[in-house]
Amino acid sequence: MARTTAGLNSNAVSDAGGSVRVTIPGSPFQVQANGGVSIPCRKVYIVAPNGSSNIRVQLGQPCTATTGIQVPEVAAAGANTRHLPLNIADVNMLYFIGEAENDVVDILYLK
């Protein structure tokens, strides 16, 4: 059922959400977003902060070095930063793999 908040129809515009930072653990450098805890959503925007490069993401199952797609990295100061938008039902559907322990991924989600 649609809500109307500040004149916005929630079927078209999200009026709630949040963010999650995912840290890549040590070997095998794989992790499920939000530790597998459910966060229902409609859309996410994913980016790897500068220095956290070569991180890949896959939906619904663990990611490997040869599956998933590359997560964009924050551009240098003054440059346009790209992000990866995905329409998904839950943040915990995201699985990541990185190359180094403590690399991070930032996820903005819209409910």
Could you give a quick summary of the protein structure above?
This protein has 111 residues and is mostly beta strands. It has a single domain (19-110), classed as Jelly Rolls, CATH 2.60.120. Helices cover 0% and strands 35% of the residues.
Summarize the structure in words:
- The protein is mainly β and 111 residues long.
- The chain has one domain: Jelly Rolls.
- Helix content is 0%, strand content 35%.
- Strands 3-10-5-8 form a 4-stranded antiparallel beta sheet, with no helix packed on it. Strands 4-9-6-7 form a 4-stranded antiparallel beta sheet, with no helix packed on it. A two-stranded antiparallel sheet has the order 1-2.
- It is globular and about 40 Å long.
Number of helical runs? Answer: 0
**Tally of distinct domains:** 1
**CATH topology assignment:** Jelly Rolls
**CATH architecture call:** Sandwich
The global form is globular
Helix amount? under 10%
- The percent range for strand residues is 35-45%
How are the strands of the largest sheet arranged?
A: 3-10-5-8
Main pleated sheet:
4 strands, antiparallel
Helices and strands, in order, run as EEEEEEEEEE
Radius of gyration: 15 Å
CATH first level:
Mainly Beta
